[in-house]
Amino acid sequence: MAEAHQAVAFQFTITPEGIDLQLSYQALNQIYLSGVRSWKKRVSRMRNRVIKGVYPASPSSWLFVVIAILATMYMRSDPSMGLIAKIQQHLPLHVSLGAQGQTMVSALLFSTLLWLSLILALRFCLKLLLSYHQWMFEQHGRISNTTKVWVTLVRLLSGRKPLLYSYQTSLPHLPVPGIKDTLSRYLESVRPLLTDVEFKRMTELGNQFESTLGNRLQRYLKLKALWATNYVSDWWEEYIYLRSRSPIMVNSNYYGMDFLYVTPTPVQAARAGNTITALLLYRRKVNREELKPVRLCTVIPLCAAQCERMFNTTRTPGVETDVLQHWQDSEFVAVYHKGRYFRLWVYQAGRLLSPREIEYQVQRILDDTSPPQPGEEKLGALTAGDRIPWSEMRKQHFSSGINKRSLDAIERAAFFVTLDDEEQGMKGEDPAGNLDRYAKSLLHGKCYDRWFDKSFSIVIYKNGKNGLNAEHSWADAPTVAHLWEYTLATDAFQLGYTEDGHCKGEVDRMLPRPQRLLWDIPSEVQTQVQSSLAVAQALANDVDCHIFPFVKFGKGRIKKLRISPDAFIQIALQLAYYRDRGGFCLTYEASMTRLFREGRTETVRSCSNESCAFVRTEDECRRLFRLASDRHQNLYRMAMTGAGIDRHLFCLYVVSKYLGVDSPFLKEVLAEPWRLSTSQTPVQQMELFDLKNYPDFLSLGGGFGPVADDGYGVSYIIVGEEMINFHVSSKYSCGETVSQTSTKVLSAQGMLLMLLCQL
To answer: Could you confirm whether domain 545-641+674-758 is CATH 3.30.559.10?
Structure first.
């Protein structure tokens, strides 16, 4: 192969005169430059480890402490209270050093120990400060003096520019709630959903659980909380995601969309060039820890641990459980186009290719007319079907030879790219229908043209539209949304395009062609591919997606009424569901717990006594709406600060399974269906977008499939001041749920709520 020959640094032949050594200086230079890049990355990582290791102090503060100690000693004062003299007595260098040298070395050792002690003290103080959450429960505009002092102290201890992971060791651990408190909150949350008889029975079950098994399970959980960094996250990742044996497509993976009204370029290869470049620039920032830590109110840091596995990560299937595999780095991406897989190198001699060069390479793939190899075209269906068959096929047929090498190229790639041969977006005479098809395409595609195991896959459509599909186990939507915001903004506003729609930059036309991945796929695998594809297609064909840009008003008007936009939307969802289905249901709203180290999510049970009272009543609507809004805000804050319900009960259930004991109460609680599953996609980097001068550059956010067979999945994003975009999903197989009908009801209820609030 041509690529193999170009990779050889030197050749030699045997002649009668001896060995004739022919060096390729160009190849050696490429090796040298690649090695320089590798060493630069190692040095950068070592430097960042030092900076993080001494945070919230700085490495230069060591010199300040040393000078201060030496200065006090010069003034014939002993700041160590005799410790320097004791260190000097035990120095093993007393023979080779004079008295002055021994004193100097002892002073340096004492200064270093003092400096490290100060770092630990500062870190402990910062952790104590970050454990204070009362600020979140104070009314907007009414900040207590305690909170003002607290904010000042937090800023003093974290004033200099932190790296991405600088706060990690200073974040508090997630606390284990009291079992009595959790049971009380649980019973309060289900009260509007149960009859008096059902509620009495559930109360008795809860009381019996608390007085018998509950306290025993709680002790084990507290022991884990003392030992583990986070008592929830590892079990949540394993049992909710990795141990699921059903397809992850639709059931777990979620999607993110392009701009609503704008496509920066209609050239597919050019959009791919800029998108891939922007993603790799983001990866560089993550690797160098140059990203600013996400902070609430510009003060309170959130855990950044989920960023660690963003790139070069794949979920590999197993018989009982899947495994997340992460590699340190990779210099290529995997590309799929018309049934063929390619390895696209994005670095040349340690240099990131320009967007124009990546476009050139992508165009080579698009122009490649070679047919797929037998069994190659629909191979990706294995990642879309059930996990056990994929695990068995992987072990039997992809563990050696060319299949292993090709699979490794996909799994080790920075991310996966699909060059789709369809056009998508809000276009043509049916913009609403096209948006729905766009969502379904990103959620599942053709069920074989995405690699659903990758941490995320990018889709570039024929008309230049793009989007992504993300695997859920390694991180939650806000982490991927942060990446996608940066990608869209960098693509449109920083990298840009020429007037004819191509990427900017120069092209080295001597670049080696993208490498076709080779396969030897036996008939047994091809049969399983068809079987997995049938399972995936049945799942995909049952999903009803509807995208609903609500533009009648946005958070601007809601906030003028001094109401939380999220509470407003959640109450509107309760009202819409009641009008649509004639009752209430257990409602899931995802809340993050990243105020704590390795925190992920908690459930906000949005269907409350107050929201149900508002929905049912025809009197005192405004007062009841305010009560429901305040209640929802309080529930959300409690979930964020570690006082949620569902993760605690989930962990108690896991402990009971490890102990081999059954709890009728826990079993019933965890079997309850979430017929209304909701999530807000937050806009975290508004500074990247200039909506005043470029109002059409609005992100559509993303969505996910329905959680329950007879329920709805609702994702929404509050865009700017005047728009709320909804992604609603349900299943065609349930005659009582219709995504498009629900959004019409939702729109009517939104207008009704706004009218009530203004009366």
So the answer is: yes
Cα–Cα distance measured from residue 702 to residue 681, given in angstroms and rounded to the nearest whole number: 7
Half-sphere exposure for 353 (CA within 13 Å, toward CB): 29
Instruction: Report the amino acid identity of residue 307.
Output: C
Q: Reduced to 3 states, what is the DSSP secondary structure of residue 300? A: strand
pLDDT band at 675 (very low <50, low <70, confident <90, very high): very high
For residues 379-384, average pLDDT = 97
Distance CA 287, CA 284 (A): 5
Q: Mark out the alpha helices in 641-663 (DSSP H runs).
A: 646-659
Residues 6+ apart with CB under 8 A from 141: none
Can you list the positions of beta strands (E) in 321-422? 323-326, 332-337, 340-345, 347-348, 351-352, 416-419
Taking the C-alpha atoms of residue 176 and residue 168, their distance in angstroms, rounded to an integer, is 20
The Cα angle at residue 643 between residues 188 and 654, in degrees rounded to 5: 90
Taking residues 671-689, report their average pLDDT: 89
Residue 471: strand, helix, or coil: coil
Q: When comparing pLDDT for 557 and 388, which is higher?
A: 388
Report the DSSP beta bridge partners of residue 332: 345
Q: Which two tokens stand for residue 730?
A: 């349900």
Distances (CA, A) of 605 to 376, 570, 641, 675, 678: 45, 10, 15, 12, 10
Catalytic residue among 173, 337, 397, 472: 472
pLDDT tens-place string over residues 255-267:
999 998 899 999 9
Q: What is the pLDDT, as a whole number, of residue 592?
A: 95
Residue 516: strand pairing partners: 342
DSSP state letter for 339: T
* pLDDT single digits (tens) 705-715: 999 999 999 99
Q: What share of the chain is helix, strand, coil (3-state, %, to 5)?
A: 50, 15, 35
Q: Is the separation of the CB atoms in 741 and 730 below 8 Å?
A: no
Please tell me the distance from the alpha carbon of residue 698 to that of residue 243, in angstroms, as a whole number.
37
Mark whether 472 is an active-site residue.
Answer: yes
For residues 16-23, give the mean pLDDT: 52
Q: Which fold has domain 249-541?
A: Chloramphenicol Acetyltransferase (3.30.559)
Higher pLDDT among residues 754 and 610, named by residue: 610
- Taking alpha carbons only, the member of 544, 355, 547 closest to residue 432 is 547
Using CA atoms, how far residue 366 sits from 266, 369, 409, 460, in Å, is 15, 8, 19, 12
Closest by alpha carbon to 437, among 305, 592, 525, 543?
Answer: 543
Per-residue pLDDT tens for 511-554?
999 999 999 999 999 999 999 999 999 999 999 999 988 888 88
Residue 310 makes CB contacts below 8 A (sequence gap 6+) with 283, 286, 455, 456, 474, 475, 479, 480, 483
Sign of the C-alpha dihedral, residues 118, 119, 121, 125? Answer: positive
- Percent above pLDDT 90 for the chain: 66
pLDDT score of 8: 41
What CATH number should be reported for the domain whose range is 174-244+655-672?
1.10.275.20
| Mean pLDDT on 485-511 | 92
Phi, psi angles (nearest 5°) of residue 395: -70, -40
For residues 238 and 527, the answer to whether their CB atoms sit within 8 Å is: no
Tell me the percentage of the chain whose pLDDT exceeds 70: 91
Give the pLDDT confidence of 141-186 residue by residue, as tens digits.
788 899 999 999 999 888 678 899 999 999 999 999 999 999 999 9
3-class DSSP state of 431: helix
Instruction: Say if residue 706 is preceded by a cis peptide, omega within 30 of 0.
Output: no
Distance (Å, whole) CA 322 – CA 312: 16
Tell me which residue of 718, 720, 272 sits closest to 491, measured CA to CA: 272
How far apart are alpha carbons 725 and 698 in whole angstroms? 10
Please name the residues in contact with 536: beta carbons below 8 A apart, sequence gap of 6 or more: 247, 249, 381, 384, 385, 444, 447, 448
Answer whether 491's CB lies under 8 Å from 274's CB: yes
